Every structure is written in structure tokens, then in C-alpha cells.
Amino acid sequence: xxRTPLPYRTDDxxxxxRSLRIQLAGRSETPSHVELLNMLAKAAGHRNFQHFRSLAVxxxxxxxxxxxxxxxxxxxxEPAAVPAAVDMAKILRIARCFNDAGVLxxxxxxxSERQPCLWVMWSRVPPGAVLHERAVNALLQDNHSFGDHxxxxxxxxxxxxxxxxxxxxxxxxxxxxxxxxxxxxIRHLKTRSLQNARRT
Length: 200
Hints:
- Helices cover 46% and strands 5% of the residues.
- The protein is mainly alpha-helical.
């Protein structure tokens, strides 16, 4: 069977390396071929390798070109995007790391649970604003209570959620759509905070 070559590119090799480092952190064994494909696809901004492949492989051309139409064909409506499946049991488990006010009270031991927590911190950084390190520290201190804002700031930069100037003085949020699980956690925490505020 002939293998179809799949071209791979990334806009930022540094962000690619950071993403791979985060995905490989804490692993005790070498990832399989399929796991590596998924890691590389995620590092380039795709959900997984299948998602990358579906975008990389061009649709087959028809055997014969259709006859020219007298009038331009009506554009069919685009299909609605199918949301990625979200494990709500996992989301509720991660949400227990936050108190009723939405403050992160403990740092999860698993990387797969830390990343959604970092997305929550990302959602609380003003979009488009350039912040000095002191302002970023203050924002993170207000949103967590386990006493390590530097860890959160560093991991957010490593994950590509924040960018900073080479001298480390200015930070900016990187605008990007959160993964489905992280978005579900952000929405759940907002809803829970609003419900608690109404009760008090």
C-alpha cells in the first residue's frame, strides 16, 4: 500500500519544542509511533494526528472535470463544527482544585490536569494588554492560593499561553482558542462562581 506523504510545518519551532517537552514530561517510557504522531500534531495546534491528517490530505480530484455551469452553483451551507468530546467527570474532578470563588487552591499532580488549570489562568489575563511582570504576578497571586505564582507564570510561558519580551519585563496573552476540555472547565467555574455569588 502506497503511503501518502503528509507535509508538516510549524510557525514557531520554539513553541513546538515547549509543547513536546510538556507532553513528554513525567513519562517513564518511550512513546509509541502513534503517540509521537499525536504529540507532533498537538504541538502544531491540531487536536490529534487524525485531525492533522484530515487537513493535510487533499480531497481526490474527480476523474473528469464537470461541464461548466451556466450560472455559479449555490454554495452549500458549511456543516456545523462537531465539538470534541469532553470528559465531564474529569472536568468536575479538576474543578475541585478551585474553591467556590474560582481561586486555584492546589496544583494537580498530573500534567493532563494542570494544563486546563493553566487555561483558566489564561482566561483571566486581559486580552491584548501588555503587562509588566509585577502585574502578571499580582494577577496570578489573586487567582491562586498555594503560593507559587512563579511556577504558574513559567508554565504558562512554556505552554505558549503567555509570551514575554527577552528581558522578561513585559508579558502578553497569546490569543488562541482553548481546547474543548479547558473551555468546559472555564465555563463550569464561571457558572459555579455566579451561583455561589447569588446565594450569598
